[in-house]
Amino acid sequence: MELSFDLAFFSSLFNKLDDYQLSYAYSGEFTDSLTGHILSLVETSMEVESETSKTKKKVYYIMVESLQNITRHQSNTIDSKTKEGFFSIHKTKLGYLVTSGNLVKKSNIEALREKIEKINSLNQEELREYHKEMLSAAELSEKGGAGLGLLEMLRKSGNKLTYDFIDVNETFSYFYFQANVALNTVETEDSARGNENTLLLAQNIHNIILEHNIKTVFHGQFGHDNIKGLLAMTECNVATIQNTKLRKSVISVMIELLQNICYHADGKKDYEGEGPGLFVISEGQNCMSLITVNYIENSKTKNILDYVEKINNMEDEKVKALYLEILMKDDVDRKHGGGLGLLDIRHKTNNKIDIAIEPFNEELSYLNIVAHISF
Asked: Does 277 lie in the same domain as 169?
């Protein structure tokens, strides 16, 4: 087994992201199919959040521009990790933070910086005039189009654009770019002051992703529609796996883990909605690990720990026999299956399930579950 985890780390990540109504991040190769699924997932999440049509259109436009920017530059090559694009979106009380990351040549940095700084320096009237000027100039080149895209992102977001360049080597830097889509049309003092900190949040998430071989992070409400979106994106990620049986196992195990959050996750007292939780995909050379974190009532922790220990200590053939025995029962309920989902994971992976309980408060704990799928 190549991948190993400190499960307390994922509890801390869940806690870090719990201040946000929605958090999604992905690092890797961006295909047209994958970007389409990302857009669809966030659209669904915004429906869950009951966002206005105006807000959804703004966020959607900025996401499209950000994702196109990543795909435009992902052909730059250094090593397999550094060249990968990065995308994240976080929902705060003030709005949506849309962040992209990609390599840029150092020779292009000054022009890019000047373009962003100029746009950021303009007031609303000056922005309108500059927009007309750019349209009338009919700048149809890639460089000109990028400038117009930046201008539109600022106008639609209602906040100044935030960016940073991180040195990679003599030729390249990593370019982080963030648009803060305000829920109100006027930039608030808090959002203006917090732009630098929100970009740091996205950079920290990206660093976590790189350090732990993570491909996908999703934190939010685990209703059926969001689960469908996550499954669609995972199918894109595993499409390159040649073994059909293995691809099906990944999707099947993922369904069981996500349904576990959807049906069984407990919540904080002030929580309203379906299954709050965290889902993470981590990939190694010979293994893929699927990780979930959710709240669980403290009264339930002993039973689930005992059950997982029991099935982990069983031989694979006995696990399979027990799974089939329970599955054949007429009264088995997949929604309230009393551990059938975990038994199914143990059966399909032929690996022990990693599980840990981390305290949250007097009533709730974090439940960490990791399923390892060997290639």
From this structure: no
- Give yes or no: residues 104 and 143 share one domain: yes
Inter-residue contact 278 to 10 (CB < 8 Å): yes
Nearest one of 349, 357, 212, 91 to 369, comparing CA atoms: 357
Res. 196: pLDDT tops 70:
no
Q: How distant, in Å, are the alpha carbons of 65, 128, 191, 254 from that of 156?
A: 12, 12, 15, 36
Tokens of 57: 């259109």
pLDDT tens profile 139-176: 444 444 557 788 889 988 888 999 999 999 999 999 99
DSSP string for residues in 26-53: EEE---HHHHHHHHHHHHHHHHHTT--H
CB 261 within 8 A of CB 279: yes
* 42 and 136 together in one domain: yes
Report the C-alpha gap between 351 and 174 in whole angstroms. 38
Q: Which string of DSSP letters, residue by residue, matches 152-164?
A: HHHHHHSS--EEE
